[in-house]
Each structure stands twice: as structure tokens, then as C-alpha cells.
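Worked problem 6 (solution included).
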Amino acid sequence: MGTHERLYEHILMRRSDASVPFDGLCALLKRLGFDARIRGDHHIFTMAGVEEIVNLQPRNGKCKPYQVKQVREMILKYAMRIGE
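Solution. The predicted structure is:
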């Protein structure tokens, strides 16, 4: 199981949202097919067919817990899988 798969499972299993690495979540979103745009420390992710826009900001190398929750809800809503 690769890094992206472990992080994907970590997020969906609702383990500690405060311990999700920022770079890892950005890479996971790109792997899921999102396009990234960076403005300062805001990393904005969009995807065709997904109405939500994901805006992530790092805090000490980790993601903010509420942002991880937003990503999890979006993954579940659109039934996103790695490699699709």
C-alpha cells in the first residue's frame, strides 16, 4: 500500500484530522484528479464535475482539521477513488 493509499484510508477512517500532512493531502487531491492553483499560502483545488472548491492552507506543515473534514465529505459525496 502506497503513501497516497494510506493517507486516503487515514482520512476516510476519521483518524486524527489534525495529523494529516499538508503536502500529502495536496498530492492526494492531485492524484484524485484535481487541478491546483496557488495564491500565497492558499492552495486552491478544483475539478470538473465537482461543485465544491477546496481551499487549503498549511499550519506547521499539517492541514487544518476542518479542511480535512471538508475533503473527506467531498470524497464520500462524489465516491472518489484513487486512480479514477
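Discussion: The first strand starts at residue 35 and ends at 39.
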